[in-house]
Amino acid sequence: MPMNPSWTSGGISADIPYLPLLAAQATAKDSRLALVVLPLRNLSDDPQQEYFSDGLTEELIAQIGRIDPSQLGVIARASAMKYKQGGKGISQIAKELDVNYALEGSVRRHGGACEFRSL
Questions:
Q1: Which end of the chain has a smaller Cβ tally under 10 Å, C or N?
Q2: What is the pLDDT at residue 85?
Q3: At 15, which helix (H) or strand (E)?
Q4: Which residues fall within 8 angstroms of residue 25, CB to CB, at 6 or more apart?
Q5: Edge-to-edge, what's the strand order for the sheet holding 105-110?
């Protein structure tokens, strides 16, 4: 289900045209959906900008978590950050965290601009 949130953090504003969610298997006993926001990849030329991509990941988790907590549970940052180094596929991550959806993406910061892409 596409969503169109707009958020501002630290003077940076980003309009996210949609957040495509990759479906895993939903559990029949729980009507509340669960989502993990995987750590955003830093695509800037500066590896010291890693804190920026981590901060945006944290902000996405917080903002999406406020949408409707009774219907959508969002995995905590500490649990999601375990998957920062990669190596596992979306299906395996979804199974380990028992989530229905996963959001992954990248961010690039250059000059005063910020580019965010979700996969």
A1: N
A2: 86
A3: strand 12-15
A4: 94, 100
A5: 41-42, 105-110, 113-118
- Supply 88's token pair: 């596992």
Provide the whole-model pTM.
0.72
Domain ranges of the chain: 19-118
pLDDT of residue 100: 93
Unique residue bearing structure tokens 């999601």: 80
Q: Please, what's the b/e burial string for 27-39 (b: 16 or more CB within 10 A of its CB; e: otherwise)? A: eeeeeebbbbbbb
- In angstroms, the CA 56 to CA 24 distance is 24
Taking the C-alpha atoms of residue 72 and residue 64, their distance in angstroms, rounded to an integer, is 9
Helix (H, G, I), strand (E, B), or coil: what is residue 43? coil
